[in-house]
Amino acid sequence: MVPFSRRDILALGAAGGAAVVATAAQAASFGNPDSPAQGAINANPAGLSDPGPKNPALESQFPSFQTPPATDVGDMPLFWASFNNAPKRIQNGGWARQVTQADFAISEAVSGVNMRLGPGGIRELHWHLAAEWGYMTNGRCRVTVLDPKGRAYVQDVKEGDLWYFPAGYPHSLQGLGSDGCEFLIVFDQGMASEYNTTLVTDWIAHTPPEILALNFGVPADVFKSIPLRDLWIFQGKEPGPLDADQAAVAAGGAPPNPFTWQLGETPPIKETRSGTLRLADSMSFRVSTTIASVVETVKPGAMRELHWHPNADEWQYWIKGEGRMGVFDAGPRAQTADFKAGDIGYVKKNQGHYIQNTGTTDLQFLAIFKTPEYQEIGLSDWLTHTPAALVAQHLNIDPAVLAKFPSNQPGLVPA
Ligand code: MN
Ligand code: MN
To answer: Domains in the chain, please, with CATH?
Structure first.
């Protein structure tokens, strides 16, 4: 048994005195390590009020910024962003909005786009300098893509489905049915913009007519009616049956792996009474060589366990429900932020974090990693797979109690 330390005594004191009045000199107590002495518990209450200009509606969205937990400390780059305050580019046929590293400095690995295509709305034939990963949140969409060996792929996707187009592979998207679709796009470069892409109309309009005639083996006046400004998103006609479109492009052969994937129907890699984790990385969704993704559902009152990712930053798209995320880094630095549907979170590689459902409904978010293979290490897994006597000397916790920590990587707790 480890002798009682000053820390033990302080911890017992804090546990016994729940109604601690905020005064100065509360530093270094359980739940408030305070080095440096930051946080309301160290402050004269007269200095805690906030009489200045404010927007109460906006302020109310960020309780953890207004009143940080006493364990928060130090500075950390802002890891909260949102599509909710991103301007929409609206055109006939649909709209899009984006958050790139230009708007969100920490987001070095990926950028994000939220797009809607109405019934028949077409995102014109184009390609990118970055790879594109997509996740359907509403409706149905038809995707087309061509690989460098001339093998075409056409497929319809629905809510919960993914696509992946490697950098430079030309593709298109079109909303289907009476309500079209909405989806998330992630590019595997933080500065990639959906507003600056290589478009078929731009190229044709900016190529001399005699070159077009020579290239396609037809008279130049074939091209006299081409659009002189790009279409980007435009209103199209509902396409015909999927099998007819697939048959029309089948001559080049089929690509070796599908460019779409049903993530929503993939068996969970983790399932507890607290929720599920579903994974798609290049081990399963083989074409997705630069993006791994996990769709995470956390039940009310439950939490995504303390963990980190050794091989990639985590970019999050919050789909439904609400929660808070605490992020830990060397320094020490610890910061907590609140998230709701349409928000974006970011955790740098190797920073510890947890995500707690703070609402009354299921929380669901997507976690995106720029890596071929998903990796995670859990704090509980680490502490239960290290000799107990060694851990006990670090934390002053009885080895018999350590043995009760989850040792099976539950992912979601309570397990
Ligand atoms: Mn694209
Ligand atoms: Mn994570």
So the answer is: 6-66 (no CATH), 92-261 (2.60.120.10), 270-413 (2.60.120.10)
Convert 29-56 to b/e letters by CB count within 10 Å (16 or more is b).
beebbbeebbbebbeeeeeeeeeeeeee
- How many Å lie between the centroid of ligand 1 and the Cα of residue 186? 10
Q: Which structure tokens are listed for 124? A: 């014109």
Query: Which residue do the tokens 């187009």 mark?
Result: 165
Catalytic status, residue 353: no
* Mean pLDDT of the chain, nearest integer: 93
CA of 209 to the centre of ligand 2 (A): 52
Q: Which ligand is nearest to the CA of 308?
A: 2
Summarize pLDDT for 358-369 with one digit per residue, the tens: 999 999 999 999
CA dihedral (211, 214, 217, 218) in degrees, to 10, reads 50
Query: DSSP alpha helices (H): ranges in 284-385?
Result: 379-384
Cβ-based burial of 65 (10 A; exposed 0-12, middle 13-18, buried ≥19): middle
pTM above 0.90, yes or no: yes
